[in-house]
Amino acid sequence: MNDITRLPALSTEPDTVELTVSLLVSLSSLPTGSLPLTGKTLGLVNAGTDAVQIARRAMAAFGMLVKIFDEGTVQQGSDVDRSADLEDLVMTSDYIVLAGDAHDIHSPLLSARHLNRVKPDACLINVGSPDNVDQLALMNALWFETIGGAAMGRKSVPAVLQAQFAKCSNTVIWTGAQADEFLPRFAEGEPRLVA
């Protein structure tokens, strides 16, 4: 069995901050060898009011550097880099979190072009709308391992694609299971689609 960090038990509907931090830990523990969290760069895209909370937890718990790109407004007074350039955030972040909703359902926040610019070992976390990312481009990037991995909340993946994403060994889909139930099965190599 792989060594794996234990997550605190979560309710079946964790808030965005809890879910994001849990998925960060899950991705860093993938058997496929994803990145450790300490000292890595976390990019938050459209995380809204949760951005500062996620940033504070990532910096305090893991010593992560944090960049924020938000089309809306982000609370002021935080000690994080509010990168106005999505391209820079995508190319320099080790973990990219999409926590809000795409403002234009016809144009995802992260398109195939963006995914092609992500570092090869970087991981993507989507706990917002499925429209945040080009789903087929993400599936291809995971299948061909051009990115390190992805984790998604259950509402962030269209139901028709969940089984396909679950076949990718570098993917975690959180469907509401308690962390205590999820991690032992995950460490044993069971499918990463958890009910």
- Contiguous uncertain segments of 5+ residues: 1-13, 177-187, 189-195
Q: Taking Cα atoms only, what radius of gyration do you get, to the nearest Å? A: 15 Å
Query: Looking at the structure, what is the overall shape?
Result: globular
Q: How do the strands line up in the largest sheet?
A: 2-1-3-4-5-6-7
Report the CATH architecture. Answer: 3-Layer(aba) Sandwich
Fold-level CATH name: Rossmann fold
What string, H for helix and E for strand, traces the elements in order?
Answer: HEHEHEHEHEHEHE
Q: How much helix, percentage-wise, in residues?
A: 25-40%
Summarize model confidence as the mean pLDDT.
75
Count of individual helical segments: 7
For the record, give the distance between the C-alpha atoms at the N and C termini, rounded to a whole number: 21 Å
Q: Mind sketching the topology for me?
A:
Elements: H1 16-28, E1 41-45, H2 50-62, E2 65-69, H3 86-92, E3 95-98, H4 112-115, E4 123-126, H5 135-143, E5 149-153, H6 159-166, E6 171-174, H7 179-187, E7 193-194
Parallel strand pairs: 1-2, 1-3, 3-4, 4-5, 5-6, 6-7
Helix pairs in contact: 1-2
Please characterize this protein's 3D structure:
With 195 residues, the protein is α/β, with parallel strands linked by helices. The protein has a single domain (16-194), classed as Rossmann fold. It is 32% helix and 15% strand. The chain contains seven helices and seven strands. It has helices at residues 16-28, 50-62, 86-92, 112-115, 135-143, 159-166, 179-187, and strands at residues 41-45, 65-69, 95-98, 123-126, 149-153, 171-174, 193-194. It has a seven-stranded parallel beta sheet, sandwiched between helices. β4, α5 (135-143) and β5 form a beta-alpha-beta unit. The longest helix is centred in the N-terminal third of the chain and has 13 residues, at 16-28. The radius of gyration is 15 Å and the shape is globular. The two termini are 21 Å apart. Residues 1-13, 177-187 and 189-195 have low confidence and may be disordered.
